[in-house]
């Protein structure tokens, strides 16, 4: 299959050098707003032709969620593979990010944390793993606009075994603090407009700065933005690029390097179901201060 044939949201690419294979994970249910069936993966040697789908995770009858299976990310940590993914809990109907684990990148992934790691009373989504300069693991995630009105990006220290939180969450910034974001009229709350935060992903550039990709809305269209922590610390302060990195109704991006060493941005576009497709764009890191990621071309 080609990219145009893959209906997938929140694409996440895990390159495996020794196999010369790219593993593509993402929200793969045809109706991601409904019942959750699990997560599939696809493999490719060139980011153009894909094989699959192959099952990466399937819940059993005792799993804590039945719908809204979103945004799986796969990270290698201490010799194992961990999938961070969002699910809607059946006990309180709130979204939360849980951690699954596997011995192989392709899975099968099994529950590792006891339900969501994010606070039980919060509506949270899109958790990503960040290991800081001293080797301590963190989850960076969104505290959703459904509770806050102005969506937040938060960070929370994890236990070394990734089974739970080791500290309280800390707000890094709110969506409205970025100069490019705009309020979005919510269908569920038409009496108020909200600011959205989606899909944080962290990347350390060659100068040691910490970059955060995250998505919101600009001009009433889904857009991909970038914030920078110049000192390289997870607590910031975070400086926002003045304009979105990608504004053509696409986002929830992540960065990876090709086997040739090129830095690539993966995102989904357009932001409409069932039309969403994976998009892979080359990017370049900025030098000095100011803008740290520069889009080279679109398609």
Automatic annotation (TrEMBL):
Keywords: Hydrolase. It comes from the Bacteria. This is Glycoside hydrolase family 43 protein.
């Amino acid at each position: 299959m080609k990219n145009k044939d893959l209906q997938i949201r929140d694409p996440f690419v895990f390159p495996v050098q020794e196999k010369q294979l790219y593993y593509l994970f993402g929200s793969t249910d045809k109706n991601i707003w409904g019942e959750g069936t699990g997560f599939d993966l696809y493999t490719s040697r060139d980011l153009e032709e894909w094989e699959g789908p192959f099952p990466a995770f399937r819940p059993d009858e005792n799993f804590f969620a039945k719908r809204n299976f979103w945004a799986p990310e796969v990270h290698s940590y201490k010799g194992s593979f961990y999938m961070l993914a969002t699910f809607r809990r059946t006990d309180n109907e709130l979204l939360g990010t849980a951690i699954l684990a596997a011995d192989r990148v392709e899975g099968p992934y099994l529950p590792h944390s006891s339900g969501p790691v994010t606070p039980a009373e919060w509506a949270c989504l899109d958790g990503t793993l960040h290991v800081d300069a001293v080797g301590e693991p963190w989850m960076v995630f969104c505290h959703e606009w459904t509770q806050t009105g102005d969506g937040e990006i938060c960070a929370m220290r994890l236990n070394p075994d990734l089974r739970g939180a080791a500290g309280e969450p800390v707000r890094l910034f709110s969506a409205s603090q970025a100069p490019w974001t705009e309020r979005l009229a919510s269908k569920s709350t038409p009496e108020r407009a909200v600011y959205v935060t989606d899909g944080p992903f962290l990347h350390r550039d060659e100068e040691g700065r910490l970059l955060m990709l995250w998505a919101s809305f600009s001009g009433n269209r889904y857009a991909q933005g970038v914030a920078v922590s110049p000192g390289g610390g997870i607590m910031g302060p975070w400086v926002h690029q003045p304009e979105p990195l990608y504004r053509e109704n696409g986002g929830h991006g992540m960065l990876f390097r090709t086997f040739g060493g090129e830095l690539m941005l993966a995102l989904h576009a357009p932001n409409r179901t069932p039309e969403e497709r994976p998009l892979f764009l080359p990017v370049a890191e900025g030098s000095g201060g100011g803008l740290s990621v520069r889009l080279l071309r679109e398609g």
